[in-house]
Write a structure and sequence with these properties.
Strand content: 5-15%
CATH architecture of the largest domain: 3-Layer(aba) Sandwich
Order of helices and strands: HHHEHEHEHEHEEEEEHHEEHEHHHHEH
Bound molecules: pyridoxal-5'-phosphate
Oligomer: single chain
Distance between the termini: 35 Å
Number of strands: 13
Largest sheet: 7 strands, mixed
CATH superfamily of the largest domain: Type I PLP-dependent aspartate aminotransferase-like (Major domain)
Length: 401
């Protein structure tokens, strides 16, 4: 969780700029705000970091997914291919857009595979919501081929992969629209916040309107603005944007430190028989927020988890059983438990969510153990943790042998 490791004078300075004027709202109040526009600056900083033409900041990564879907024209009744391994917000956003999630297989990239997408396509498929997981990126050449072949709309949820790229193009910019999260656990945090990005001017304008009750933001009299489309309130406050701005400036240094630490860990742990790692389609584009270890099978991975727990080695996620990122833990989706009817109930689920046939995903997540990488580790801390992980893996192997 690197962003949270660095909360300091820079963040406080940006917040104080806002506190000096008291204008916490991102629009209007031109006379009182002393030319302080943190949301705008935050958007410009994210656009610069990732190389996007347009960025629009909102209240969370979850609402950024909603904006990205709406701006890409995904709506009622559309089938959207999603991964069964993702933060649940991706799936929620599809459902609350009125669309129908269709789960497809991932592979060792931890993201949807081109083959998985191909097998899930039906005549009703409108889009793919590709989620770049655990700081890495999907295999974009193969995915773009299937997306283009079938004329699908691609939307990218890069909630946990801002600053990752594939062959020089950032996650979030391969599809029609993309988005990042700035919650407390991401490479940069705003406390709460998210950013939608696109290179498409029409999509950008739609997101800008959609995230603020349809306001067109033309002129400086809010009461006189036009409303090209229906929207809702997904606005970010100036205080959150101020933090996000300072944090975004830190990302290149964080990414560099993460990569140095991850390379060391992969070199050391890779020497142990049976240890491999999630596939990184472009290692030079890794944001390296996680070290993703793949053991040979679920049983050996669970033995490693047991040894890590026994030895008090924390800082890892075993998503297969104990985290809220995998369909096996999504009983509400499988059982159709909702506060109020959605299109999944109205139109019928396109798949039996409780009995999906996703063997490749089950075995991949069963084998996966992810360690959160900290950018602020000292060399000594890094070496100590790595040797503790190595010892636990070896211990688990003598137990199971
Ligand atoms: C964190 C995350 C989100 C949600 O972001 P919030 O800011 O917590 O709402 C969405 N998608 C992915 C892949 C995430 O990791």
């Amino acid at each position: 969780m690197p962003g949270t490791e660095y909360f300091g004078a820079e963040e406080r300075k940006e917040i104080n700029d806002v506190l000096e004027t008291g204008i916490l709202f991102r629009y209007n109040h031109d006379a009182q705000r002393n030319n302080i526009w943190k949301a705008r600056e935050f958007e410009a900083e994210v656009a610069k970091l990732v190389g996007a033409k347009y960025a629009h900041a909102v209240s969370s990564g979850s609402t950024a997914v909603s904006c990205a879907l709406a701006a890409a024209g995904i709506g009622a009744g559309d089938e959207v291919i999603v991964p069964p391994f993702t933060y649940i917000a991706s799936v929620e956003a599809v459902i609350f857009a009125g669309a129908l999630p269709v789960f497809a297989e991932i592979d060792e990239t931890l993201c949807l595979s081109a083959e998985g997408i191909r097998n899930a396509i039906t005549p009703k498929t409108k889009a793919v919501l590709l989620v770049h997981m655990c700081g890495q990126m999907a295999n974009m050449d193969e995915i773009m081929a299937v997306v283009n072949e079938h004329n699908l709309v691609l939307v990218e949820d890069a909630g946990q992969a801002m600053a990752a790229s594939y062959k020089g193009v950032s996650t979030g910019l391969w599809g029609k629209t993309g988005c990042y999260s700035f919650d407390f656990f991401k490479i940069a945090t705003a406390g709460e916040g998210g950013v939608m990005v696109t290179n498409d001017e029409t999509a950008y304008k739609l997101a800008d309107n959609f995230a603020d009750h349809g306001h067109d933001h033309i002129g400086n009299n809010r009461g006189m603005e036009n409303h090209p489309v229906l929207g809702f309130n997904f606005r970010i406050s100036e205080l959150h944007a101020a933090v996000g701005l300072a944090q975004t400036r830190r990302v290149p240094a964080i990414r560099e430190a993460n990569n140095k630490h991850k390379k060391f860990m992969m070199e050391e742990l890779g020497k142990i028989p049976g240890v491999s790692f999630a596939t990184i389609p472009d290692p030079s584009g890794d944001s390296a927020t996680f070290l993703n270890i793949l053991m040979p099978d679920t049983q050996s991975a669970q033995a490693v988890v047991a040894a890590l727990n026994k030895n008090g080695v924390g800082g890892f996620n075993y998503w297969f059983t104990n985290m809220y990122h995998f369909i096996n833990q999504w009983d509400h989706i499988k059982e159709g438990r909702v506060a109020a009817k959605t299109n999944v109930q109205l139109l019928g689920a396109p798949q039996d969510y409780a009995n999906l046939n996703i063997p490749k995903t089950q075995e991949t997540i069963g084998r996966l153990i992810s360690f959160g990488i900290r950018a602020s580790w000292t060399d000594a801390e890094l070496a100590e943790l790595t040797s503790k992980i190595a010892a636990s893996i070896k211990e688990s192997q003598t137990v199971t042998a």
